[in-house]
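Note to self: keep these together.
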Amino acid sequence: MTEKVKITQRQLDLIKRGASKANLLEGHAKGGYKNNAYDELLKIPLADFVRVLYEPYSYEVEEEIKAEQERQAWAKIGRRVGEFRDGDLGISEHGNYIDTPSILKARYELGQLRGFYPAESLISFGGGEDD
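Structure:
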């Protein structure tokens, strides 16, 4: 099975914008387009570009790949995407620790969360408890 070509959402939007496949291919082969906005397509190697234009299902959009990988990561810990719980410990984009689920969720939605440690991953040694 041939690997799919990875393109960005912007590249896909440009391809679907309305220019004919022939014009898109001609501009790509010449190394530039009359409308410079299409030059983003030159980042796709020519052979891959031909596949994207003429082979259905030959490409995948990078944003969709990333979203699926993220969904799978959440599923591995038995949660829905963006589901934070008491006991989770997050790390902000600046390296600060966050332990409040509502703040974790807000930072996550804003793309300001570097990562987090789910409460389920805590290894408890049983120390520090009052007798």
